[in-house]
Write a structure and sequence with these properties.
The chain is of the alpha+beta class. It folds into two domains: 30 residues, no CATH class; 72 residues, Winged helix-like DNA-binding domain superfamily/Winged helix DNA-binding domain (Arc Repressor Mutant, subunit A, Orthogonal Bundle), CATH 1.10.10.10. Helix content is 45%, strand content 16%. The chain has five helices and four strands, in the order H-E-E-H-H-H-H-E-E. The chain has a two-stranded antiparallel ribbon. It has a two-stranded antiparallel ribbon with strand order 3-4. A hairpin with a 6-residue loop joins strand 3 and strand 4. Helix 3 crosses helix 4. It is elongated, with a radius of gyration of 15 Å.
């Protein structure tokens, strides 16, 4: 179930044991409609979808896919962190961003 969810790009299922056994499958909320409703720019939507599809995004990745400067990429990615969509990992030159629900 875990590998099937990962292959489908969905969050890992939750397994619960409480007077029986149940599995909770969660929907991937990071789709285009959700991101538009969250007020993200088209550039930021591209970044989130890239991170979803590739497991992470770096500043260099964002510069390439959005055709922006390093400073603009840094600001946009920080905004996504502030909005609780991405989580920043690593230090200095090794910084990358992942979706909050994929930790």
């Amino acid at each position: 179930m875990r590998s099937a969810s990962a292959e489908a790009g969905l969050p890992e299922p939750v397994f619960q044991e409480d007077q029986g056994f149940s599995v909770i499958f969660r929907k991937d909320v990071f789709n285009r409609d959700y991101l538009v409703r969250a007020g993200l720019s088209e550039r930021q939507i591209s970044a989130v979808l890239y991170a979803r599809d590739n497991g992470k995004i770096t500043n260099a990745d964002y510069q390439r896919i959005a055709d922006v400067s390093a400073a603009t990429a840094r600001r946009d990615l920080k905004d996504l962190v502030d909005k609780n969509i991405l989580d920043m990992k690593g230090v200095r030159k090794g910084i990358y961003y992942i979706l909050k629900h994929r930790q």
